[in-house]
Amino acid sequence: MAETLTITDNRTGKQYELAITDGTIRANDLKKIKVGDQDGGLATYDPAFMNTAACRSQITYIDGDKGILLYRGYPIEQLAEQSTYLETAYLVLFGELPTAEQLRKWTHQITMHTMVHENIKKFMEGFQYDAHPMGVFISTVGALSTFYTDGKQIFDETSRQRQIHRLIAKVPTIAAYAYRHSIGRPYVYPDNDLSFTGNFLNMLFKMTELKYQPNTALERALDVLFILHADHEQNCSTSAMRSIGSSQVDPYSALAGAAAALYGPLHGGANEAVLRMLKEIGSVDHIPAFIKRVKGGDGRLMGFGHRVYKSYDPRAKIIKRTADEVFEVTGKNPLLEIALELERIALEDEYFITRKLYPNVDFYSGLIYQAMGFDVAMFPVLFAIARTVGWVAQWEEMLLDEDQKIARPKQIYTGAATRDYVAMDLRTPRQDAPS
Ligand code: CMC
After folding, report:
1. 78: CA distance to ligand 1 center in Å?
2. How far apart are CA 21 and CA 63, in angstroms?
3. CA dihedral 224, 227, 228, 232 (to 10 degrees)
4. pLDDT of 182
5. Which residue has a Cα nearest atom 39 of ligand 1?
6. Residue identifier of the C-alpha nearest atom 49 of ligand 1
7. How far is the CA of 23 from the centre of ligand 1 (A)?
8. How far apart are CA 314 and CA 274, in angstroms?
9. Please, which of 61, 139, 350, 413 could form a disulfide with 70 given CB 3.0 to 4.6 Å?
10. Which residue's CA is minimally distant from atom 51 of ligand 1?
11. Residues with CB under 6 A from ligand 1
12. Residues of the chain with pLDDT under 50
């Protein structure tokens, strides 16, 4: 029997039967619940999308209570253990793990697109020496739309695939250039002999040596971190990607918007904020006072809490393990001790227990990045590189979804009723008006 929801409108006494599909009712079905012909019908009010599904998606599944994360059905733990970033990227985009031949072709396609137009270098040189690399990244990704004007052909499958290859391949190059710019070092061209992450390390850290040899343990650790960040269903930046993309703009412009959403400290900027927080706390003795401040509403424990996870973020568990492997090569990050103690105290504290606040992906990732030699300001950029595949996969799914249209939420208007224009000399200033 089809599942339905019966609603009685006590304004009119009428009853309505709404279909339930996949645990949801269609918000549009509520429109028929009205008190008269002039009434536009009932709507839902859901600021911050706390309980609204805006799409159907086959890409990523999260069970926040159980701490489960699957890409196309595959558990994140297995992918982190056995896959590579490029293989996972293929899976996220195309829905299946590639065969050896498919992976070879895919890797070749991405590798062949890693270089950026020389004018992009010139464009990047215009930034201040101390420009935040994430600001440079966002602007440069947006500028790609002026270089690849065929990106506008979003309904042409071949063109769309070309833009996807370009984006996945070029974001590490742009990120590395942004970093080299910020430290005043010459840009390093991609090395196509290296892996995706090996080449990225090359573009960041190569000095005068003829051939850069990445440390294999660090290269693998970065690959695992990229796998963990590849997609995370309808988070703030992905919703931005879908929403901007729904206007049918090119993917470079949409992705610049998604990256901008990621930059905020409540989202991908949290890894940077965690490091700054740990530094500010300074020593284990200062933790109780810091926790007290947070509980009093003065700031947040960055890297804790999640809209969906109400248990330990599975990515954070894997990152904690990866941290040990990295520290074996680099030596321990001195801030680790503070982070571990902070986590221990928070997980025993009533405030965090009742609110189900656990470490998220950003709590430990920054410690690893820092130990690997990344500047703190680069952390959100690293997140953006890895998430690019998720953004483009979700963007393409949105474009091909017949249910989708241009995104346009409703509002509840709470402003003034219609009134007549007042001549300047008859106006009286409002008490709270800006001077
Ligand atoms: N420290 C202290 N209190 C917190 C924290 C935190 N990190 N996170 C949530 N709370 C409290 C919050 O004050 C609220 O308490 P009350 O009910 O008394 O008002 C309650 O927990 C629920 O929080 P919320 O803000 O309503 O939850 P949300 O789902 O809107 O926010 C969040 C989710 C991730 C933005 C939030 O937990 C947060 O700000 N965390 C710190 C920033 C962070 O680590 N962000 C990275 C998220 S994971 C990576 C990614 O995908 O971006």
Report:
1. 28
2. 19
3. 180
4. 87
5. 266
6. 267
7. 26
8. 18
9. 61
10. 267
11. 232, 235, 266-268, 270, 294, 300-307, 355, 357, 360-362
12. none
- Give long-range contacts, CB 8 A cutoff, 24+ apart: 276-285: 276/302, 276/376, 277/301, 277/302, 277/303, 278/335, 278/338, 278/339, 278/342, 278/367, 279/335, 281/338, 281/342, 282/338, 283/338, 284/337, 284/338, 284/341
CA nearest 340: which of 327, 356, 350?
Answer: 327
pLDDT value of residue 207:
96
CA of 159 relative to ligand 1 center, distance in Å: 40
Q: What is the CA radius of gyration of the chain?
A: 24
Hey, which residues does 304 pair with through a beta bridge? 359
Q: What gap in Å lies between CA 290 and CA 287, rounded to an integer?
A: 5
Q: Which residues does 98 contact at the CB level (< 8 Å), separation at least 6?
A: 87, 90, 91, 106
Q: Are strands 68-71 and 4-9 parallel, antiparallel or unpaired?
A: unpaired
* C-alpha–C-alpha distance, residues 42 and 311, integer Å: 35
Crossing angle between the packed helical segments 157-182 and 100-111, to the nearest 10 degrees: 60
Which residues are known to be catalytic? 267, 306, 362
> Of the residues 134, 238, 263, 266, which should be mutated to test ligand 1's pocket, given the most ligand atoms within 8 Å of the CB?
266
Q: Residue 43 burial (CB < 10 Å; 0-12/13-18/19+)?
A: middle
Rounded distance, CA 386 to CA 422, Å?
54
pLDDT of the residue at 429: 86
**Spatial distance between the Cα atoms of 353 and 342, rounded to a whole number of angstroms:** 14
Tokens of 37: 């012909």
pLDDT tens digits, residue range 129-160? 889 999 999 999 999 999 999 999 999 999 99
Question: Which residue, by CA, sits nearest to atom 29 of ligand 1?
Answer: 307
pLDDT of residue 359: 93
Measured from the Cα of 360, ligand 1's closest atom is 48
Q: pTM higher than 0.85 for the full model?
A: yes
What is the predicted pLDDT for the residue at 109? 97
- Cα(354) to centroid of ligand 1, in Å? 13
Phi (first) and psi of residue 106, to 5 degrees: -60, -45
Residue 375: how many other CB atoms lie within 10 Å: 15
Q: What does the mean pLDDT of the chain come to?
A: 95
